[in-house]
Design a protein that fits this description.
17 helices; two-stranded antiparallel sheet
Length: 447
C-alpha cells in the first residue's frame, strides 16, 4: 500500500498537471475549480510523506507534498501563460524578510543533533512550499473579482468543517472536536481567520445574501466553540470584536446594527446551550497543563540563550529531553547526576508558543526577523484599510485586522502556525494583502 500511494502521486503529477493546465486555459470554470482546490485542501490535508518519521513529535515529520501543491503547479503554468499581460513579480512584498527568516533557519542546521539533521530539512522543505504558495497566489490574482470567488470558497470550507465537527460531536460523541485538522487548536486558529473575513463581509459588503452569510458565520462559530479551546474561544471573541469595531468606525448603518443585535441574540442562545460543556472544560483542565507550558518555555529560553543560531530547526522535540540539560528543571535526575528511572521514556514535548520555539531552534535574532515579517503584513494591511475607504473590498482589510490580531495573540500560547494547514493559510492571507496593494496601485496609474 505504501508503494501504491507513491505510484498514484507520480501518475497524478505526470498526467493531472498537464491535463488540468490545458483544461483550465480553455475553461474559466475549470480554472476556478483548480483555485478552489488550492484553497480547500489547506483545511483537509491530502498528502504523502517521503522519508517519513511519523512518531517524531516535531513541527514536520517528513518531506511532505499534497494536493495543494499539485493544484499550485497548474496555477503556476497559468501564470506563465499570461506573463505578457500580467508579468509575474519575482519577489512579492515581504519576500526579503521571509528569505532572511529561511536563511537563518537553514543556518541553524549546523547545531542539529546527529541523526536529526534530516528533521531540519523536513521543515525547510515545508518553508519552501509555503513561499511558493505565497508567490503563486500573489501573481495569480489580478482582479478584485477574485476576492468574491475567494469568499465563496471560504464559505464552502467553513460548511465542510462544520459538517465534520457535527459528526464528531453528535454522532461519535467527541468532547473536544478538531474537525479535519490534526488538533482542535489548529481548527480554532484556521477559523479565526476565515470567520473574521466572513464577519467583515457580512457587515460591510452590500447586496449579499445576508441569511446565507449569517449561517456560514454561525457554523464557523459553532465549530470554534465545539473545540472547547479556552484560549481559542477567547481570541475568537477578540478577533470578532475587532472586526465589529473597525466595521462601525467605517460607517454606521441600519444593517450593521440589525446584524449586531441578531448575532448577540444567537450568541446568547448558543452560549447557554454550550455553557455546561464550557464550564466542564474549565473545571477539568489539568493544573499540570499550565505547569508544563511554563517548564517547556523555560527550556526554550535555555536553548535560545545557549546557541546563537539556535539548537537546530525542528530539533526541539528531541533536545528538550535527556541527555541534553535544557530541561533539567523538568528532569531532576539530570542535575543530580543520577540515572533516569527505569520507567523513563522520551517525552518529546514541544514548547507551546511559536515565538519561543523559533528563538530556541533558530536564535533570538531569527525571532526578531519573524516578528518583523508577520507584523510588516499587519501594518501593510492597516495601511490599505485607510486607502480603500471607498472600495467595496475594504471588508478584506477589516477581516484581516481582526483575524491576524487573533492568531498573533493565540500564537503566544500555541505553535500551530508551523502546522501545514495554518502555515498555508497565513501565507495565503499575506499574499492577499500584497494583492490589494498591487491592484490599488494599478488603479491609481489608470486614473
Amino acid at each position: 500500500m505504501a508503494n501504491l500511494k507513491y505510484v498514484i502521486f507520480f501518475l497524478t503529477l505526470i498526467f493531472a498537471v498537464p491535463i488540468g493546465t490545458a483544461l483550465a486555459k480553455k475553461n474559466r470554470k475549470i480554472e476556478n475549480l483548480v483555485f478552489f482546490l488550492m484553497v480547500f485542501f489547506t483545511a483537509q490535508e491530502v498528502t504523502i510523506n517521503f522519508v517519513s518519521r511519523e512518531f517524531y513529535r516535531g513541527t514536520s515529520r517528513g518531506f511532505e507534498i499534497g494536493l495543494v501543491d499539485i493544484a499550485m503547479l497548474i496555477i503556476l503554468f497559468l501564470i506563465q501563460s499570461r506573463k505578457r499581460e500580467y508579468p509575474p513579480r519575482k519577489f512579492p512584498p515581504g519576500s526579503v524578510l521571509y528569505l532572511m527568516y529561511f536563511l537563518f533557519s537553514w543556518i541553524s542546521v549546523i547545531n542539529a543533533a546527529p541523526g536529526y539533521v534530516v528533521n531540519s530539512y523536513f521543515e525547510l522543505w515545508k518553508m519552501v512550499r509555503m513561499f511558493f504558495y505565497f508567490w503563486i497566489i500573489y501573481n495569480y490574482i489580478n482582479d478584485w473579482k477574485k476576492f468574491d470567488l475567494f469568499m465563496r470558497i471560504i464559505a464552502i470550507n467553513i460548511i465542510y468543517i462544520a459538517i465534520i465537527v457535527f459528526k464528531q460531536k453528535y454522532i461519535e460523541g467527541g468532547f473536544q472536536n478538531s474537525g479535519p485538522f490534526p488538533h482542535q487548536n489548529s481548527l480554532v486558529m484556521y477559523l479565526i481567520i476565515f470567520n473574521s473575513l466572513v464577519f467583515a463581509y457580512l457587515l460591510n459588503r452590500k447586496n449579499i445574501k445576508i441569511w446565507f452569510w449569517l449561517l456560514v458565520f454561525g457554523l464557523g462559530s459553532f465549530s470554534i466553540i465545539s473545540t472547547l479551546s479556552r484560549a481559542g474561544m477567547a481570541f475568537f471573541v477578540i478577533a470578532s470584536v475587532t472586526v465589529w469595531f473597525f466595521s462601525f468606525i467605517s460607517g454606521f448603518s441600519a444593517k450593521k446594527i440589525g446584524i449586531t443585535f441578531l448575532l448577540l441574540a444567537f450568541a446568547t442562545i448558543g452560549l447557554l446551550k454550550a455553557l455546561d460543556s464550557i464550564i466542564e472544560r474549565f473545571e477539568t483542565a489539568p493544573e499540570e497543563s499550565g505547569l508544563t507550558r511554563i517548564a517547556l518555555a523555560q527550556a526554550a529560553v535555555n536553548m535560545a540563550n545557549d546557541k546563537v543560531f539556535g539548537i537546530g530547526l525542528n530539533n526541539f522535540g528531541h533536545k528538550v529531553n535527556p541527555p541534553y540539560d535544557y530541561g533539567e528543571h523538568i528532569y531532576p535526575f539530570l542535575h543530580k547526576g543520577e540515572l533516569p528511572p527505569p520507567d523513563y521514556e522520551e517525552k518529546n514535548g514541544l514548547v507551546e508558543t511559536i515565538y519561543l520555539m523559533i528563538a530556541a531552534e533558530t536564535g533570538w535574532h531569527n525571532l526578531i526577523i519573524f516578528l518583523l515579517f508577520i507584523f510588516s503584513f499587519y501594518f501593510r494591511n492597516f495601511k490599505y484599510y485607510l486607502k480603500l475607504k471607498y472600495s467595496e473590498y475594504r471588508f478584506v482589510t477589516i477581516g484581516l485586522i481582526g483575524g491576524l490580531s487573533g492568531i498573533y495573540l493565540e500564537s503566544s500560547l500555541e505553535w500551530v502556525l508551523k502546522q501545514t494547514n495554518n502555515f498555508y493559510q497565513m501565507m495565503m492571507m499575506f499574499a492577499l494583502i500584497g494583492v490589494m496593494k498591487k491592484l490599488y496601485l494599478r488603479e491609481q496609474k489608470t486614473k
